[in-house]
């Protein structure tokens, strides 16, 4: 039962909209409901695309690379856990930098740390397995710095009228990057030979990360204002009626699945087939399905549909785990991958948009957007850490197929709990 970082994009919330452009970081914001994306939104999507391509090219195979050096599920779990803890701490600490100084520096630092990660992997080669915590720390720093800045800028360049469209395009780019790049990586690894192939794709990712840094300079330096409150948003959870009292546990439930399925499915595909090329084929097929699904949901989903769409998505991405009880092989994994790719947009787009819309639901909340984005990530990371610790505990106790499948079904069904927490936020009583 294992998997490397899967490209099923998941990120965002909705509340009353105000016409004040200050809420969205643009003095020339288009009217809500127009659904148009301005040039800064497009550039941000390009940066996201380059980051996604570089990670899809090599990230899909990082856990396989570690697994081939040492067949140890627990080791893969500890690698994921070190990333998750570092990412949470990075979000919290870098929040001050992003709010009070230059958020673009954080964005570029995230891309830069990703490049350093692959440089270190190239340098260590097969010895990388002995430096799992260092590699996890670098990955956590990269993800924390990049996604904190990305989410803040994303909030500032969008509004409730075009947020679903932006998320749809982000999902299209994320899945699009997974259509050919992992397949190409698998082909190169297979044709060039293991170590040489890995060295080449890791080097290629390095180059793409540097291009991403260059493109990021076309993003305007955004204004900063206010003082970062280290525990301000967290302290607000004590207030009755605060929607974040439902949102945070909802995000934690989402993170439980992400924390484990983010590293286990790709690894399971490789273990079932023993071929990197088959993992590339798997990612190509599932990403192609996700591409079409994100395109459709991003185009046709309306705010009034979020409640039902999220419920259908949560139930279906849980149900597609059931074939594992028959047999865990390439066919059942493909059924799972296609089903997840098909229904994940119905779950993730309403959730992501609703959370970020809530951040913009009042002037005070919008002014504390950095703190709320940090709180959002801390909620997700709590869930990821919990899920990964459960995985490590179970895998250290037994690898019996039935127990593993029950664990995957329970962890994979947590999105239903996310919907239960979010249902009144999406559809206020």
Automatic annotation (TrEMBL):
Q: How does it sit in the membrane?
A: Multi-pass membrane protein
The answer, when asked if Oxidoreductase is one of the entry's keywords, is no
Compartments (UniProt record): Cell membrane
GTP-binding as UniProt keyword: no
SUPFAM superfamilies, per the entry: MFS general substrate transporter
Q: Chief location of this protein?
A: membrane
- What are the TM regions of this chain, as residue ranges? 42-67, 73-94, 106-124, 130-154, 166-190, 196-219, 255-273, 279-301, 308-326, 332-352, 373-396, 402-422
Keywords annotated in UniProt? Membrane, Transmembrane, Transmembrane helix
What is a single Pfam family found in this protein's UniProt entry?
Answer: MFS_1
Which protein, by its recorded name, is this? MFS transporter
């Amino acid at each position: 039962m294992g998997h490397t970082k899967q490209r099923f994009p998941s990120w965002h919330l909705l509340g009353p909209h105000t016409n004040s452009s200050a809420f969205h970081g643009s003095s020339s914001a288009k009217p809500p409901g127009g659904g148009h994306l301005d040039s800064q939104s497009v550039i941000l999507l390009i940066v996201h695309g380059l980051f996604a391509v570089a990670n899809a090219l090599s990230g899909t195979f990082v856990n396989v690379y570690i697994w081939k050096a040492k067949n140890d599920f627990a080791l893969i779990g500890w690698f994921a856990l070190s990333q998750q803890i570092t990412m949470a701490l990075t979000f919290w600490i870098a929040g001050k930098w992003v709010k009070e100084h230059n958020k673009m520096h954080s964005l570029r630092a995230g891309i830069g740390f990703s490049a350093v990660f692959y440089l270190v992997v190239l340098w260590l080669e097969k010895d990388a397995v002995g430096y799992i915590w260092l590699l996890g720390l670098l990955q956590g720093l990269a993800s924390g710095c990049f996604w904190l800045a990305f989410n803040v800028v994303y909030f500032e360049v969008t509004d409730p009228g075009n947020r679903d469209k932006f998320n749809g395009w982000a999902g299209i780019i994320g899945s699009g990057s997974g259509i050919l790049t992992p397949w190409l990586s698998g082909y190169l690894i297979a044709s060039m030979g293991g170590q040489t192939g890995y060295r080449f794709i890791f080097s290629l990712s390095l180059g793409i990360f540097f291009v991403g840094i260059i493109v990021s300079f076309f993003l305007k330096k955004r204004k900063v204002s206010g003082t970062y409150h280290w525990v301000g948003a967290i302290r607000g959870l004590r207030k009755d009626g605060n929607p974040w009292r439902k949102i945070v546990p909802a995000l934690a439930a989402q993170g439980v699945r992400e924390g484990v399925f983010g590293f286990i499915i790709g690894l399971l595909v490789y273990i079932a087939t023993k071929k990197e090329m088959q993992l590339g084929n798997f990612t190509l097929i599932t990403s192609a399905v996700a591409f079409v699904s994100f395109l459709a949901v991003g185009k046709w989903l309306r705010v009034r549909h979020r409640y039902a769409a999220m419920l259908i998505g949560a139930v279906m991405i849980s149900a597609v785990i059931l074939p594992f009880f028959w047999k865990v092989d390439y066919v059942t994994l493909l059924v799972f991958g296609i089903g997840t790719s098909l229904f994940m947009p119905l779950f993730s787009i309403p959730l992501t948009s609703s959370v970020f819309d809530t951040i913009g639901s009042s002037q005070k909340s919008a002014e504390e957007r950095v703190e709320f984005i940090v709180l959002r990530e801390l909620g997700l990371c709590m869930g990821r850490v919990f899920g990964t610790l459960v995985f490590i505990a179970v895998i250290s106790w037994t690898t019996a197929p039935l127990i593993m499948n029950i664990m995957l079904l329970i962890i994979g069904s947590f999105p239903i709990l996310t919907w239960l927490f979010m249902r009144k936020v999406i559809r206020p009583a």
